[in-house]
Amino acid sequence: MKLKVLFAFMLLAFMDMSAQAPEKMSYQAIIRSSDNSLVIDAPVNLKIIVRQGSVNGSGVYEESHSATTNANGLVSLEIGAGSQISGDFSEIPWDNGPFFIETQVDPKGGSNYSIIGVSQLLSVPYAMYAKYAENVSGAATGGGGYSSAAVVSLQASRNIAAGDIGNTLECTKTATVTLTSGFSDMKVGETVNLEAHNGASLTVKAASGVSLNYKEGGTANFKSESGNVRFGLLRKSGDNAYIISGQ
C-alpha cells in the first residue's frame, strides 16, 4: 500500500517537565492511502530520521516506532523515545541547523519502509537547545543565536520573493506562486515551507526555463479542505530548478 503523510507537525510539547531538560518531543501524523482515504485503526511501523542541513542531508539520528492509527488516521509518538537505530538524540547539534524530520512507514508492521514525508523543523525547542548547550565545552558567544522562521501571508498570486526564503508561506486564499527564471536571491539548497489553509488552494508554478520536479514549466498544487491544512516543502536544486514535496 502506498501511503503518504497529509499532515505532520511537531507539537513541541514535552511529557517530562522535570528539572532536567527533556530529551524527547511529541510528533503526530495523519496517514492517508494513495486514494486519499484515511488509514484507520491500523498497526503501522514508522521510522523517524532527523536530517541536518537539507531534506537530503546527513541523518544525525534515526529510530523506529510501532504505532496504531486512530479513527482519524492519526498516529502519535515521541521522537527520542523510539527504538534507537543510529545516532544519539541528546547529542544532536541543534545550534547548527536547519533540521528536517523524515518519516517512513511500513503499513504491514515490518521493516519495508517507504518515505512518506519530509518536514522542516521550523523551531528548535528551547529545552533541547539548552540541553545541548550544557554539553558543549568552551565559552558561549553573544549574537548569532537561533531565530525562528517568519510566517509570510499569501492571499493573492505573485512571483516568489526574497522574503519567502527560509520562511513559511501561509496561503489563506487560493493563489499561485510563480518560480521565475534567474531568481538568484534563493541559493541552491535553500527552502520555503508551504501551507494551504482552510479550503484554500496553493499552486506553485515554474515559469518558462524553470523546472519543477524535473519538468520544465511544471506545477504542484496543495488543495486544503475546510478546517484543515496542507503542508509542503520547496527546495532549490539548481540555478533554475526546484523540487517540491508534500503533495
Description:
The structure is a single chain. With 247 residues, this protein is mostly beta strands. It folds into two domains: 3-134, Immunoglobulin-like (Sandwich), CATH 2.60.40.380; 151-245, Sandwich (Jelly Rolls), CATH 2.60.120. Helices cover 4% and strands 47% of the residues. The longest helix has 9 residues, at 126-134. 30% of the residues are buried. The model is unreliable at 4-22 and 133-147 (pLDDT under 50). Residues 1-21 form the signal peptide. This is Conserved hypothetical periplasmic protein. Keywords: Signal.
The name of the CATH superfamily of the largest domain reads Purple acid phosphatase-like, N-terminal
Structural class: mainly beta
Largest sheet: 7 strands, mixed
Strand content: over 45%
Q: Rough shape?
A: globular
How many strands?
19
What pattern of helices and strands is seen along the backbone?
A: EEEEEEEEHEEEEEEEEEEE
CATH architecture of the largest domain: Sandwich
Please work out how many helical segments DSSP would assign: 1
Annotated CATH topology of the largest domain: Immunoglobulin-like
Total individual domains: 2
Low-confidence segments, given as residue ranges, are 4-22, 133-147
Q: How far apart, in Å, are the first and last alpha carbons?
A: 17 Å
Q: What does the radius of gyration come to?
A: 19 Å
Q: What does the oligomeric state look like here? A: single chain
Keywords: Signal
Signal peptide: 1-21
Protein name: Conserved hypothetical periplasmic protein
